[in-house]
């Protein structure tokens, strides 16, 4: 069934399979009965402030109490008004005060096989040293620190050190290009940058500092650059007066800096993500509400138990790493595995080797990884004892039922619940997910909302749709973990999220709710595509292509891809050049340089012109069909020149 208004395709597959939680799991689950969930859900819905006020008192440390739970004047929310807390304190000191100082916080393994273990007490010392080092470099409360680092403990340490002194971290995934780093530094007016000499990826060294040097040449606000020695190769260029080594500035500190009491609404971090326009937006999260959301959702969804070894495979460069590698699990006193490298180095069984070695109980990964494992073959899994696992999670995109079944059977041995968690950078933490002790799961559905989440599916006039009908997914009530804004762009924040359906948060996803009240995410309503679980705006990729001198015009769409979920297909018109393989190569390189390897187009097609509406808009809907190898369907009545369509098809 085609939904002509948005060009999205409705689900045609109706999934009937139902997987109840294993009885043994339910017995000691954090949420152990449907009645308990219903009570929590009703309390959060009917007495929002009473519910969250109690939660915040119980689950965060307060230097000074808050006087109002939620001040909401759409689109602006303030939570736990006038309270003072600190996310680093909640992740470290609070646990140490509760007798968990000697518990392992981080079990870390580097790609080459080097390992480190940090207890909560040891982690606090490292965080304090880093905070002292940052202060010595002139970082004050409210300053923005850009972080471009490998998945080493120092990445988490830097984030927590910023939180400790009230600096705002802006973590940039270490696969982005120098251009992308500079854009983010400039947008946020970053004062200090933290990076490393390099990182290991599939046995090779990526020279991070070189990329940062290129970025810093275009980042006038950055005064200092702190460099971790991860690789230890000679010849790293250090700019006099700007660049300093971690081992000189951080490791020499005492490591006992008390956490700064910070306002509940003090900015905690900015994280850039793609929206429907070309410019990435800096999503802003603040201290108390975000911290509480990350912690409670972690405890509920991952059913956290004392003896768990929890592993979230996400990189801290993404929101999943922020909320479920750092803030959620550490606030909850969990023992977390952190791994630096690729899942297929030295071999395709690296993840399963790690699960066996560290006796991982809870594994949280992405469908794109699961699809890669399926492709690599079951023999890599079968070599290992995975019997320590008790719970599996998925995030980043919908998990197709086949991948779900494989995850369930091959990794979970048919007795681990799977939590398919739906959420976004903007939501701060998980919004919809099974609760593993009580929810019967359906492969491909993120099931039901967590307490405090009031989803609503509406049509284009903002009216709720009937069950089983697709529509735009909104959230009808503010929640503690919600974004507080787009850095430096109040207008865009209001327009993007709160205007189309007035007073409700527009997620940008299409969804449907079935007769059992289970939600099914159906993809984006805007021009955002999801490549290997990472959000990219088609317009960003188009802008990168058009900035090449040979390109006149470019249109980028997603097409289905077995491994990546969506692949990037680019239609390009050119001038003064031959449309040959050489140029395709050049364009790919150009996009990598502009954005980073994750935006590399999979297909490039040269065309004489692009299909447009009479008002001049590129008809991406048609291009999507063509890129997927389908007949272009749907309405072509507004197409300016029908012959364009014929010639695009002829190119196959
Ligand atoms: C998609 C990642 C289906 C969705 C945490 C959302 C999902 C976007 C799921 C956010 C899921 C994430 N099922 N789709 N379980 N999880 N998405 O900001 O389109 O990187 O809007 O946050 O990913 O991506 P983001």
From TrEMBL:
Residues 37-91 form the Acetyl-coenzyme A synthetase N-terminal domain. Residues 101-487 form the AMP-dependent synthetase/ligase domain. One of its GO terms (biological process) is acetyl-CoA biosynthetic process from acetate. SUPFAM superfamilies: Acetyl-CoA synthetase-like (SSF56801). ATP binds at residues 396-398, 420-425, 509, 524, 535. It comes from the Bacteria. Its EC number is 6.2.1.1. PANTHER family: ACETYL-COENZYME A SYNTHETASE, ACETYL-COENZYME A SYNTHETASE 1. This is Acetyl-coenzyme A synthetase. It comes from Stieleria varia.
